[in-house]
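Memo subject: From amino acid sequence to discrete backbone structure tokens
Keywords: amino acid chain, backbone geometry, structure tokens, three-dimensional fold.
Body of memo: The sequence and its backbone structure tokens, given next.
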Amino acid sequence: MDFVETDEHRDLRAAVGKVSAPFGGAYYVDHARRGEECTELWHALGDAGYVGVAVPEAYGGGGGGLVELAMVCEETAAQGAPILLLLVTHAISAAVIAEYGTPEQCQEWLPGLASGREKVVFAITEPGAGSNTHQLATTARREGEEWVIRGEKYYISGVDDAAALLLVARTGRDERGNAQLSLFLVPTDAPGLQKTPLPVDVMLPEKQFTLHFDDVRVPASALVGDEGQGFRQVFHGLNPERITGAALCVGIARYALARAARYANEREVWGRPIGAHQGVSHPLAKARIETELAALMTRKAAWLHEQGLPAGEESNMAKYAAAEAAIAATDAAMQTHGGNGVAAEFGLLPYWGLARLLRIAPVNREMILNFVAQHGLGLPRSY
């Protein structure tokens, strides 16, 4: 076992940090409050080759894998600029297109994704299905050389800044009545596609949308992979989404703890820094321990996935541990700042809100506990 990162990986972390640092917390918080995408940072990372670090070299990417993409997610967040769309655009959409797309689809979409000049977001969630993918109601039916899509999606991130959706739709049912799913690339300007902003109280740069598909027509060539195999194809992207989500949480925790430690060293009460008091230092130390443990599980899960080994339980554990660590770290950082923890000047509250959101999405901690109970402990399935 070797826990020392390679020189290449250390260089990658340092380079991503160097690109992200000039933007940092003030930039991110300003965009989060205004609900505006961090476009300048995205383009800076894209121009430096880091947005497309996991896209195959043949399409202009870095040729790396999930390990490298997770590092990019973590290091941008550690500089105070967590980017949610790295999860959906690259951990899911780019990975699925590269694995299952036709040569024509790869050529059409992957170069733009690699450069950061285009985004393809993921559309699976529905208001009536929740965590039960078998209950997806959005349908796609074949009519000649076209697919006709009808239905609704919910809580879809970044639609306003994307060129297309990687859409999950039901194209049939098997002999047991379970949904047969298929994946489609749907332009965001397709006729019949209505995009309605979904207001949320969490301060985020990325907007959320409800999507209505009113007989949206796409060509037969929009099908990604084989018809009816979407369930298997979707799961190719779900572990990476959880791993990169975990990496994002680790970065958020690192940023919050760095802010808290600096404040605790500089802020003096009764003639000594507040960090000298165990009531301040112990919660921060505990949060750092939890962050490091989450980081280790995140790296293990990413490595297993890269090796083609089973990584479902580890991916879920990493996401669970990292979300809990991020919440604990941001909460401890706010508590360290006292009243300043909620002051706009210090800009900590948006990170707590994002960490709290990531306890729910892309999979909530209760479903993770269900998974671990069933697959790790052999307990009866509860759902």
